[in-house]
Write a structure and sequence with these properties.
286 residues, alpha/beta, 4-stranded mixed beta sheet, two-stranded antiparallel sheet, 10 helices, 8 strands, 10% strand
């Protein structure tokens, strides 16, 4: 991916090296958080949904400080902030074409754990978007896991992950996230999971739209980049993750979509470059 020399976004909050509170969850501290993460992993539930309902303790426990970043030797942060700038340019143009104004999210870089309006976020949760504070959270060590644990290396695979989370921000701006959340509260768990899958697949499609339009505008794609993005979409499908974690697959518990579905919708956005082609909620077949 051609990104060196690109504009870096100023909408970045670097919390690496800041004190990290431990035991910040009421009724069990870090143990409660571990339980939440385990439940979300095995049931296929988005952990941020569970964390939104967990009140935070107002008392401070002893803090733990992450190592500070080394000035001038931070290529991963440079990459992430450049990709964010590309998403700002792309979605800014798309919104402007429809007579609207794009309000970019803030990218929060953290180490280990951090507070968000959705609760306590941990690196184990992977990158996530929090609608209430309109921020994308990522521990950059996730990119190492993406390459090694999920076998999806490459800078464009990383860009796909960031673009997917920005896709959730677009859904938030358009009101889609609120509509889905309200609908989930009126349905049973199976139907609620199905709605979550459609939301996630639309974010995948939006990531493809971003890649397509950014490439047209700035020529960011190199040979092999598309394959890297498709490999990442495949690696984080619910079926793949469930098979790896527990040895069997439960489709009714999917919350992000199968590998095949994620690849299909990312490819649709990439090939069309049209956000209007990303209506997963009206599609009869995912």
């Amino acid at each position: 991916m051609r990104w060196e020399g690109g504009r870096k976004s100023s909408n970045v909050e670097d919390r690496r090296g800041m004190p990290v509170r431990r035991g910040g969850v009421v009724g069990g501290g870090i143990g409660t958080l571990v339980i939440i993460l385990l439940v979300s992993w095995f049931l296929g539930v988005d952990p941020t949904m569970l964390l939104q309902n967990v009140p935070m303790d107002s008392t401070s426990a002893p803090a733990e400080t992450a190592p500070p970043p080394v000035p001038g030797e931070d290529p991963q942060a440079d990459f992430a902030t450049t990709v964010l700038a590309y998403t700002e340019d792309t979605w800014g143009a798309i919104f402007q074409a429809s007579g609207a104004t794009y309000e970019p999210p803030t990218l929060v870089l953290f180490s280990g754990a951090t507070q968000s309006a959705c609760g306590l976020g941990q690196a184990a949760m992977g990158p996530f978007y929090c609608p209430p504070d309109r921020k994308v959270y990522i521990d950059l060590d996730f990119f190492r896991d993406l390459a090694q644990r999920f076998q999806a290396p490459g800078d464009f695979a990383q860009a796909y992950v960031i673009a997917h989370e920005v896709g959730h921000h677009v859904q938030n701006l358009l009101g889609t996230s609120r509509q889905v959340q309200a609908a989930r509260q009126r349905t049973d768990e199976t139907e609620g999971n199905a709605l979550s899958v459609r939301l996630e697949l639309q974010a995948d499609c939006y990531a493809g739209v971003w890649a397509s339009q950014a490439d047209q505008a700035a020529g960011i794609l190199e040979q092999g980049d598309v394959e890297e993005g498709l490999a990442a979409a495949t690696a984080i499908g619910d079926d793949r993750l469930q098979q790896q974690s527990r040895g069997y697959v439960t489709p009714d518990s999917f919350t992000h979509g199968s590998s095949e579905q994620r690849v299909r919708w990312f490819r649709r956005g990439l090939e069309t470059g049209d956000p209007g082609q990303c209506d997963t909620f009206s599609s009869a077949e995912l």
